[in-house]
């Protein structure tokens, strides 16, 4: 289970980073590269609210966790792009684990398990946060 979670987390982060690469190459990625951390956190929280039915209190807390992650990712992307590299994957994985740990304290067991299941299904189907996106070749 831990290995599957680590693989999912890594893949999720790679997908997030791939949209930045497309944007930097002049593509119309429309992904993370063109959105603020606040917009990303709001969109992610809205998807989660729809998918796992968050309460008002949960929605506020989940938004804060998502915002913290999106802010870290934006700073790492900005720094990496200035250096002509990609963000350090160990840091990204660590932030993703921290985000998931934060979400686990907010969500019920059923909601958390459904979130992980939905994330895996999206990854396999190419939906939000998963699959081959952004024109990476």
Topology record:
Layout: H1 2-24, H2 37-52, H3 56-83, H4 89-106, H5 109-125
Helix pairs in contact: 1-4, 1-5, 2-3, 3-4
Give the structure's gist in a few sentences:
The chain is an all-alpha fold and 137 residues long.
Total individual domains? 1
* Shape by Cα distribution: globular
Main sheet summary:
none
Helix content: over 70%
Gyration radius from CA atoms, angstroms: 14 Å
**Roughly what is the average pLDDT, rounded to an integer?**
80
**Spans with pLDDT under 50 lasting ≥5 residues?**
17-30, 132-137
Query: H/E element string?
Result: HHHHH
Q: How is the quaternary structure best described?
A: single chain
Q: How many β-strands, per DSSP?
A: 0
Give the N-to-C terminal Cα separation.
30 Å
Q: Helix/strand/pairing class, anyone?
A: mainly alpha
Strand content: under 5%
Q: Helical stretch count?
A: 5
């Amino acid at each position: 289970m831990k290995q599957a979670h680590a693989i999912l987390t890594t893949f999720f982060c790679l997908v997030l980073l791939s949209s930045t690469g497309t944007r930097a190459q002049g593509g119309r990625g429309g992904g993370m590269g063109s959105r603020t951390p606040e917009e990303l956190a709001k969109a992610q929280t809205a998807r989660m609210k729809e998918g796992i039915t968050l309460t008002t209190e949960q929605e506020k807390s989940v938004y804060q966790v998502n915002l913290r992650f999106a802010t870290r990712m934006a700073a790492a992307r900005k720094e990496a792009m200035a250096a002509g590299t990609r963000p350090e994957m160990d840091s990204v994985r660590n932030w993703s684990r921290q985000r998931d740990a934060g979400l686990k304290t907010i969500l019920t067991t059923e909601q958390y398990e459904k979130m992980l299941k939905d994330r895996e299904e999206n990854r396999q189907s190419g939906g939000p946060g998963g699959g081959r996106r952004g024109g990476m070749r």
